[in-house]
User: Fold these one by one.
Assistant:
Number 1:
Amino acid sequence: MHKKTIAELGAGLRAGEFSSVELTHHFLQRIERLEGNLNSLVTVTPESALMAAEAADQQIKSGNADPLMGIPILQKDIFCTRGVKTSCGSRMLDNFISPYDATVTERLMQAGAVSLGKANMDEFAMGSSNETSYYGPVKNPWDTARVPGGSSGGSAAAVAARLAVAATGTDTGGSIRQPAALCGITGLKPTYGRVSRFGMIAFASSLDQAGPMTHSAEDAALMLQAMVGFDPKDSTSADEPVPDYIASLDDSLQGLRIGLPKEYFGEGLDPAVSDSVESAIEVYRQLGAEVMEISLPNTGLAVPTYYVVAPAECSSNLSRFDGVRFGCRCENPHDLEDLYKRSRGEGFGPEVKRRIMIGTYALSAGYYDAYYLKAQKTRHLISDDFRNAFEKVDVIMGPTTPTTAFGLGEKMDDPVTMYLNDIYTIATNLAGLPGISLPVAPVNGLPVGLQIIGNYFAEAKLLNVAHRFQRESEWHRQMPIGFD
Amino acid sequence: MSLDHSDVEKIAHLARMALDESQIDAYAKDLSNILGLVEALEVANTDHVEPMAHPLHMAQRLRQDQVTEKDHREENQSISPSVESGLYLVPQVIE
């Protein structure tokens, strides 16, 4: 059952081939058997999962045909889940039992999805390898000596290993697409504002966006459909019409204009990854697409811009963790300042501390103009690059990451080298555009991701373009050895 | 831009975050490297470029000033490290 997609499992449930309770048991048993090799989960919730599965079975019996009804999924541990620990991968929130549900959690529950538990992640979503988690690193199921990517590394590893059919993720600088690429799954980061951020623990509020991590584009469409929509509880939620993401999946790609940014195929890109991406683009040519080279001239500014904007917003957002109302509190504080300082010093790990300090520095008196204001202007230049490109092309394609998954511990000593992993994904967040990563031909047995970037609110187009590739290829059906 | 030991202490104080004395030099090196990465922005010509604060250039939405939530005090305080009679407790601030 675990080899099937959401669409296939949904059909099986509705045809009475198996029940949601059976399906949930099946995945819980897989978690018990295989999770020890991966460390992809922080919390497993078997009792509430089986209760939800029973309720879903009743719904299905009475004719409910909602596509996610009874489907077992995982939530990244950044989404608040009422009555369940929501750690955000941090010691700071190790004791935090959320008193409310995130909008994403609520919507997926309403759609009938069965949550099996909470996925491991980089601490407060700050990381590209899932090695900054308080709960230890997640391992890549394709090679457990390698990283799964991050920050949604637990979600990606668990879906790749078929511990759940799908998972939620969040993407601030590549945190859905990069781990999806390194673990060989499909991951969609929607347009900024498309999915509600309410109850999703904030890292950088002008960049954060939630999205689905699945086996196929079709499954991503099913998940996204349940997750999207205007939410008055999120002040930046986009009040835009929601299309039917399934209806356009099979649309023809005849005449589709694909732009390949020359900056995404230059120095630093592993030639084998480049070949794999090129061969995927050849498939699009055969499907009738027109491929042309384009330029995003300010690409080189994206990583530096991000490492001002994201830390600045993070230093502000994470000031709420003060040891007073919830979360980690130090022992025997002798005054209020000591309470703040030691609670934060003990609760946050080194990468979070680095980013809080960079942000604090960039926003401090005398430095604001040189760093934050400058970065807001370069952000505009980066965004304009895409605006110009989308006058000529319908979608932009390139590699999701410059290399395949690297070894655990390999880049932990040098934050700057780690940051450069997100070189192809970060600009999309700065501009607020949607992007998807899907598996293409692997290199030396390790997955490679093709990234497709679309115009604002063009998720349906991205899913259509990805789905048409997956109709022609089997890469998204490959499974890591040892997780059959 | 290179930061030294005392710069890091100053920044950590602004962020109200205690650092292990033995790790301050390592932070100084890492933060200096990150600022080195960020220096690439200096060469970009941003004359006449407007700062971009929001990807969708959206205006802040307003709503009626109405109570929409019920009282959640008990639930919210049930997870607090220290509460008494509905109040959060912290070390004494006023002598």
Note: Chain A has a mean pLDDT of 97.
Number 2:
Amino acid sequence: MILAAATLFERELLRFYRDRGRVIGAFLPPVLFWLLLGSGLGSSFRLPGTAGPVGFLQFFFAGTLMLIVLFTSVFATISIIEDRKEGFLQAVLVSPSSRLAVVLGKVAGASAVGFLQGLAFLLFVRQAGFSPSLSGWLVAALAMLLSSVGLTSLGFAIAWKSSSTQAFHAVMNLFLLPLWMLSGAVFPIQTAPPWLRLVMRINPVSYGIAAIQESLAPAQGIAGLPHLGASLAILTLMSAALAAFAALIASRE
Amino acid sequence: MSGSAAVSVRDLSFTYPAARKSPALLALSGVSFEAEKGKSLGLLGPNGSGKSTLFKILATAAHPGSGSISILGHDIVRERAAVRRSLGVVFQHPSLDLKLTVNENIRFQGRLYGLSGPALSRAVDAAVERFGLGSHANSAAETLSGGMRRRVELAKALLHGPEILILDEPTTGLDPAARREFWRHLQDLRSERSLTILTTTHLMDEAEALDRLAILDRGRLLALGTPAELKATVSGDVLTVESAEPQKLQALMLDKLGIKSRLIDAVLRVEQAQAHLLIPRIVESFPELAQAVHFSKPSLEDVFLGKTGRRFEIGKKEGMGP
């Protein structure tokens, strides 16, 4: 089973990095958003309850990271639909490899791609105005990895059930993008109206954003963020649950 | 014979459940047959005959509805893993990852079947050599011609050394030269080692070359036997008579000459021994009505026609179900 999963994992990485369009398509748009929105809103943005000045470029950094992870894992899981259409999947499904290995390989491969792309963006952390410690770096990377596994599993479950890539895009626009927007990625949770705040608290992506923000700037003391340990715990639980859900969806049928 | 049977299908039925716009569809009904070890068996039938459903079930891509199937003595449901290891599957739609190279495609397939390390390298090298893929081994699969891609499919399917190869219309979309080449590869393999081949086809010339045939129509098994045995079930030779007024000619031929015929797709068909002797009588008696008369030895098409009263090609258009 591990051999089969490792095979599909390797294939996912090969396919991604061989396709320059996908590498750029998943990386450049979020970075452009970050630069344009960050520069445009710039200092007119004030994060409530902060000691020092936090510009939008800095605030939006964690959101951009999450967007890269989201875009990459979404593009990667969409390939399940193509695999089905182009016929690659049929050969995998009649091989002795278990369904669990298929899910594991695909989700691990797509998460790894999302994680590595996010890691590349994390190199700009100083340009964004953060100066995290080594442990801050590591915790941010961990939060990103967990988010990546969660979002990829969710994408996988949706893609497995989608009949076409168009249908997947529709679900993604209706569901995955709002999930990102309402996570504290674009605007802080504490300035949102109460009903929205409730939605944002339920949204698992919020905890990914919170964990990244806190690990990069622990001293800033942004009010309204859940405790780092709690964020990571919730993130881990959610990712595990979503991965199990993806495995369940794929093993029926 | 079940001891030497590679594949044994007993009383298999399969129904596609009703969906939003289509009612439930009985795709296979009480199908039973056996495939002998080391021989080739063709599943012949028009689209909608149920042969693709049968393929899917045999390839373990779908669960059998009712009935039982054993493959080399293993039950297809209860011993799925063992069954899957003994099968090499070639799908009608290509299963290659076009973005990967030929070598990667073959290697990844081997790993899905549990091959690794030196054993995998040896198997991949042998397959590349065997199917003449050497000069393309490092090209992306999308750059290959249709015939070449099929060869890679075959190489993939046989990599883990399966005892049974099952194929679904494997030469679809290939030109005649590539089709011949594909079958030549299969025949060579058969002569090298004992390989049981099960293939679906709707091409008569492909079917002629197989050891045995199972003819399917509308989910039922119509006939089973060697091509020669099946053709022997057609009584005598076949005459087809074309006419602008076939019904009128049919009645006249029976009244005046005592020749029984069947009207199928506006063409009269006469099946009897020494049918060539009838040609001058028909042409002389009905110079106006009989526009063309063809004589032929019975073909597999005639076997199908004889059993169903429909032509093979017509059935193809009706297409009932997937």
Note: Chain A has one domain: 2-251.
